[in-house]
Specification:
single chain, mainly alpha, four-stranded antiparallel beta sheet, two-stranded antiparallel sheet, 26 helices, 69% helix
Amino acid sequence: MSIGFLSVLSLLPIISVAFFLVWLRWPASKAMPISYVVALALALWVWGVSFPQAAAASFNGLVDALELIFIIFGAILLLNTLRESGAIPAIRRGFADITPDRRIQVIIIAWLFGSFIEGSAGFGTPAAVAVPLMVGLGFPAMAAVVAGMIIQSTPVSFGALGTPILVGVGTGLGGAPEVLTYAEGLSLEYPGFLALVGARVATIHAVAGTFVPLIVVSVMTRFFGRNKSFAEGLKIWKFALFAAFAMTIPYLVVANVLGPEFPSLLGGLIGLAIVVTASKKGFLMPRDTAHWEFADAGAAPSDEPVTAGPEMSLVKAWSPYLFVAGLLILTRLQEVGVPFLGSSIALPFNDWLRGTDMAAIGTVGADAVGSVSFTWSTFTLQGIFGTGIGQEVEPFYSPGALFLAVSAITYFVHGMNPAAYVRAWKTSGRTILSAGAALVFTVPMVQVFLNSGGGESGYMEMPYVLAEGVASLAGSAWPLFATFIGGLGAFVAGSNTISNMMFSSFQFGVGERIGADPAWIVALQAVGGAAGNIICVHNVVAASAVVGLVGREGEVIRKTFWVFVYYALFTGSLGYGIVSYAESGILNAGFVIAGLIVAGAIAAIATMGRR
């Protein structure tokens, strides 16, 4: 069977998602089972995967879905705890003291606070933290989810302390001989090569990310404002660009100086400090006498505590989010450098929560399911149904466990009524039940798609076949498509890290074949993988479930799809321009396309100014 025809077949699960979820507007709970069946049928009868392997992949996906549901439940519980304690009204008053303008608020919460949380934890955690916070402040749930998904771009490549680069690209390339030879030619060890890729990723992101805050507010005013106008978002272009640079400049500096671990974390944190301080002083703030508000302002259900107490201070109200941020950092870092001592302090929390180097306290031999072992903090399942597919669950390391812990801390810190806290648990339990139906098919579909190689037909995994087909058509223009392949991997797998694992080696090889710098091509893969999170199905399902929008996932993707196209096309054009510069000069197709995109943005702002 030809690679072209196989590529078309491998696209069918994705087409089914687009058709039923986005085009026909079916809820994910109905669309994703069909997509799962399509992927399963292709794996069994075209790719020739054995039934045990397909069943193992499906089972593995169910375990992943349960992990995701655990995280979602923790996020919902924390939000409901803050509502019952009276913290949300206090946080809302704090933002009103800065500005009641929703355009400014969404930049501060989604772009800056979301980037910081992404850098700390990654894996969809910003949507679980920032999206419910916006809803609690009075944002329509759909507006909050759309904003939360759009910012899942620039900071994602350095999420979870650089995991998509260090683990995703690092594992994907695997220290292959050709990669090591390339690194040696640059006088770099393998870790230094990964740092080089990270610096290039940050360079591309910093350019494309310049427009992300402006896009967020413009999409928000277009779809959720009274006048349905992009212009109302473009009016604050000066502040939006200022907020973008406040994050991307330190982000870029950190990537080049400190490496891939801290760009998003420190960029978001520094940007937050700069922008909040400037906002309080009125710097570049909107001059309108009437601040922008949503069309359905005031329609959201009240989040005032049922048993009202004394007005809560702003520091006390924000303390749960400070606990979340602090615990994320403490549990993700293994050591902290102390410059004035010239040494570092080891942090035990990461190893403790993950059970590193701890002997198993229970082991079950191979049976109908597989070999199971567990420590107090880790559950490991190997050889599921006699296959090479395995699973490792670290429940105490999960953000879900962190959210539960902070919810319990909040009960004491905020002096909550026991009845109110029980009510928060009951409300959260009812909400999470509606999210499960979609996720128990979404994630297994992904796992079947990813584990479709090694069958009797001898074909590579479906994502790899699809990428190979595109590469055979693109030829030397491949850099324009590299970001879209990275985005496709994240769209399906739900993770920039997994996308990088799948495609980094492939992208490196294509770069060598077409005579382009392979490090830049791998960087484009990582950037595209980050952009794919904007439309990633199970991230959309998770974010929608947190704020009660189950069944409207397709509506979210329809609003964010063109943002993904912008990001992938702009960054792919920049990459093509960079790798073609030596041969074609500055007036090559890549820089021309990128220049037209920038010119279009400037023209839109100028047109708004004339109006």
